[in-house]
User: Fold these one by one.
Assistant:
Number 1:
Amino acid sequence: MKGIEVRNLVKNYGDVQALRKVSLTFEENKLYGLLGRNGAGKTTLLNCITGRVFPNSGEILVHGETALENDKAQQKIFMMSEKNFYPDGMRVRDAIKWTREFYPGFDEGYCMGLAEKFGLNTKKKIKSLSTGYGSIFKLVLTLSTNAPYLFFDEPVLGLDANHRDMFYRALLEKYSEKPFAAVISTHLIEEVAGVIEEVIIIKKGEIIRNQSVDELLATGCTLSGTAATIDSLIGDKNVLGVDSLGGLKTAYLVGQIDPSTLPAGIEIGKMDLQKLFIHLTNE
Amino acid sequence: MNLKSAVKYQVLDGKVAIPVFYLVVLCVMALLLVSTSDLGPGGYVNIGGFEMGTIIFLFILGLNAFRETFRMMIQNGVSRKTMFLSFVILALVLPLGMSCLNEILLGIGKAMTAGNDNVTLQSAFEQIYAPRYIENLGTMQVVLEGLLFTICVSAAAMMLGYFITTMYYRLNKAGRIAVSVGVPAILIIGLPIFDAVVTGGAIYRALGQLTLFAMGGPNGYNPYYAMVSSLIAFALLAGLSWMLVRRAVVKD
């Protein structure tokens, strides 16, 4: 069985249940968005898979082999963490050298090229990098490993809009050249919505949605038009939210509406992932 | 593949510290040789014990061999088993290499002081086990046994450092404070008082005898006792360290 299988994973921190019997599969060559509010369990899930912390119970398999304490399985995964795991005195170029040592598929030429594109100084000590460049360093390294499963935990932390755009482009370019599985754990849902194919929403340690973005967005729709008409249409509907601008209104609704039943001047559109996320993860 | 890379990482992690250590050793040796070159009539000095520096150095290296390495290796998909094994290999290879270098340096130093009757250059091993070598000082037997002695003791010292650092890593803040305060308090205050008041010095006498036995003193200054004792200590400390490493998790 290819892919990463997580079965009934439980992780407790004292009295806090960080993961409650989580089961999911990360298939090969798919781009996943792992979405959840702060403290939902996103990082804990990725940390369990990469063996940084131990689950209390459950099973994690990588291509059918147990992931815990298994070098062979772990070599298939590279995780870019929000935190820095590199030694204090290490320079960027040394980290590149050592990642190449541990990941034989590492593409040094690509890495140096991407570092140059981002303006990353490889002579600098990792510790001295700004928050943004700290993220860039880890992104560049992660994309260069050529591991079949790449985990990005808050990948665009501290990045300006240009660098965020460069990252998404680099990710998609790399993916189009040679597909891999990427799991992007982030709060910036609007940005990532155009990149991911599959979405996993985690709430209080439980997976509440695990489906393709298209399927998920098909569970709702938006209606746009004049405020008065929209108000008259949404009265009996499950409304997730409303945006108003002047006399125009956009309503986000759960469920689908037959376009033929709508009056003239009303536009029906795709659900917004962020709105849906807020609705699904609200208390 | 991973083990090889992990060992390489651990070895190269000390690429600055080891040359600096030997630079200091060479400077100290040179300084001592220069300062003792003209002692005048009747002047005599016995210089030695450089391998004690190696033992302390390797202990400190062991103390610094866990936290950063653990995080770096976890980041690079290395299992705890592989990282522990790589340290065990390091704790055998480094003492071997450094002990050989010590013997070479000692040999050079001895050759340089050969014509000077006022200066004797000896290893700590030769000083401790002098009674064993009264009749065959300077033979290959002394060199080989000294080499084995330093390898075994420094490997145990390195593993002791590793055990201490992994223990501190695993303990929570309260535990670290308890060990940092409690152990010295027991060893420096509690135990001596208890020994003097309650057992009439029996504990420290027993500890002294045990140390002497472990060093091979009562058995004709046999260094093989010390080697076996060190290897047992190495194995025990390695076992305890593994129990700590195998469940270690990354901390913020």
Number 2:
Amino acid sequence: MQTRRQFLWLAIAAFCAGRARASDDNAVVLATAEPDPAVSLTSLQVRKLFLGFTVLHAGNALRPVRNRSDALLDKIFLQHVMAMSAETYGRRLLAMTLQQGRQRPVAVYSREQLIEALLGIPHSVSFAWQSDLAGIPAIRAVRTLWRP
Amino acid sequence: MWAETRRAIPLIAAAMLAATATAGETDPTAGSGQGELLFFGSAGTLLQHSDDPAYDTSELIVAMDVLGSWGAGRFRVLGELLLSTEEQELERLQIGWELRPDTYLWLGRFHQPASVWNARHHHGSYLQPSITRPAIEAWEDEAGVLPQHFIGLLAETRLPLGRSSGVSLTAGFGAVASAKEQTVDPLKAFDFWDLEDRQSWSARVALLPDFADDDGIGVIASQSEIDLADTDYVGPATHADLQVLGIFAAWQHGVWRLDSALYAMRANFAGMGGERDEFSAGYLQLKRELGKEISVLGRFEGSAGTAGSSYLALFPDFVEQRSLLGFRWDFMPQQALSAEFSRSMGRDSRFSEFRLQWSVVLP
């Protein structure tokens, strides 16, 4: 009886651990290849960055990279990070360019392009599924943007 | 030839200074510039029916607004060129330096910041909620009574207020370009040396509930010397001092959107013994989204004190009152079809207009 109860608790713990792991993997994180471990952006700074405003870290202007490799990821980015529809976001970016000549974020359409952009563009910042960053030590998740 | 070269000297010098400063920038991204090229295109038709049939008209209007910008580090350059069936004009050419995040100092030719509508939409027809702009925001060569372009310095900043709000401050100083200068001699518009009877300053302050958005409430103020040599004015004055003070509101709440502004103006004719006239004008536009792609809007424009205004007498085509209904269908990404019907009353005329427009932005 004792053994059976221990097995049950063990199974529940394993199930919970698995769920937690799955949640972590499905989280959307802010990612960068910046070597400075102190990179941390507030919600407003992330919004500003992806609208084309200048956001500095250690004196360097961060470069936004919009990850469009996955439709659900893009939807989460618009709803939970930018808090606007795709149409509104598109118009806002156009308005920023029209008003001040600000550049729209570079867009990538695959995991490979994302890794290439983050490693190749100095001070670049993007967002991704946490699981997509596994096994790439040069790219770090600096903040969780969304969890299921 | 020398005169034309002399006019361009300040711009060339500014470009060299900025390039030099950029070369010394410690930001390692400074050398890797980024550019944008946008094309705001539109094609439409206008049918105008006047109370005097002699003024009935129909037009086909095709326009392409080309916007180019390039930036490296803190340096930025921006140009806007409008090509249409009615005019070809270099609207803006500005060289800027970002002193700190969200603070720019620009040199060049701009749209003056005291026009809320134009500072927001410029010539980007696709981004305008309506086909037409309110009469008080009209360009100088489209019966506008306020100077909308100037040459000189422009400073822009946006400061955080609280957790997510902000305050934006924009101020410009320079010379206003008359409509004649803009269309006849584009280089004349960049003449920094000839400030006589053309000096202007303008400013806008806005309280922004969302720091990263342009919506909010605010005040505008400006003072401009209007060179009367370019107008039909007959009298002893060489210029009119035009002072403008205004308030505005731009607000989006759910499916509703409000755009409104009220301007109070005072014109003093120099050399007329202090004679002056005062008038006001404003508009209120309400837009409602009907689903994701369709929206309807209504706009009312009004004015007061216009009847006895010597200043407005210089602009006989100015629309003093207008009621407008509009419809917009965003049928594809970055493309829209719009229709407008309006009834207008000018100084000496009353007319109705129907407009249909397709607008697009590429890429």
Number 3:
Amino acid sequence: MSKTLFACGFALGALLAVAAPGVATPAALPTLIGKEAPDFVLKSMDGKNLRLSEYRGQVVLVNFWARWAGDSRQEMPALDRINATYHRAGLVVLGVSVDEDLRRAHEFAEAMKVGYPILFDTTSNIGRDYLLQKMPMTILVDRSGVVRYANIGFKRGDDRAYLDKIRELLRE
Amino acid sequence: MNSKQRIVSIMLRGGILACAWAVIAAAPALAVAADNTPPPAAPAPAAAAPGADAVAATSAPPAGAAASPGAPLPDAPAADFKTLDQEVQSMKKDVIDLNKDLFVLQEELLFPANTQVAVYVSMDVGAFFALDSVTLKIDNKEVKNYLYTAREAEALLKGGVQEIYLGNLKVGKHELVAFFTGKGPVEREYKRGATLTFDKGVGAKYLELKITDRVTKHQPEFKIKDWD
């Protein structure tokens, strides 16, 4: 409540101030880049619970996928290759399924045979936190837990862009 | 200071900060605009020739202008920046103070001591149970579902105590139900519940979910302890 009151006061003051000529405020962009990655804890395919914040200090690639998104089928093997190469260098790849049908998501994940952990979000809370609009979506989180890169969808050549960013973040 | 006065004070301070922020944000733009404005033309000395007049105007300021009391000093911009920097620092301090006040007020408003209820989780030994998740229901309404990672479970086994829930309850009788899931003896899936009916009086209520080993039965035991 106090925050709301403060926000009201601040907004009122800002409105008055901005009404003065020559002062303008930039519009906020709906993106997570530059912000701290919202934390989550999810059950993985092997039954373990994994929390994003426990990977602080490592570069984390989070891939949100759904079995009904055709691009996921192309992207997951590419991410598996990246994981196999860069895991030892400090990269963590997490696949997060946003499918509501847990059983079919499990079947899909097993069929893809990827080596990185696959987590299941059946509540849609994480999708909301990460402003998911289209599947698949991939984000890169740096060692301090800040989102540094996001890619919506997947097309040929995107995996190269991931590699460039991953190398850059691993060097930091 | 009562709550109303604090609310008004916080709103006023927010408004003042916003105005100050806007003024400071606009300052560089105004400074640039002032720099770009052409200075008023100095009157040319009547005795000088037109050619010499132009050279004098571009090469050196007139002696009269430099000596006049209204002219800006050479170090004036530096002094301005210093003042601006001091203002920014003072604003930063104000923001920190305000943030602290807000936090205290938020705690008081959201979790007033007389309606507060806090639930903690602890584990003792844990040889017969590997904790996976805890679901809490208060008066038949789910208030928390917490998944434990291996590290968190290990921290509990090492003696850590986790505050799993903090909320508010009215005075009177309430029922707390806790469901524990995990791996029991011989790696079997294990789900157990524990229930406690408690009286919430005036003042904070502290409850502890305790997971212990019952050695005689080789089974885990789940209890809810009411810390009066």
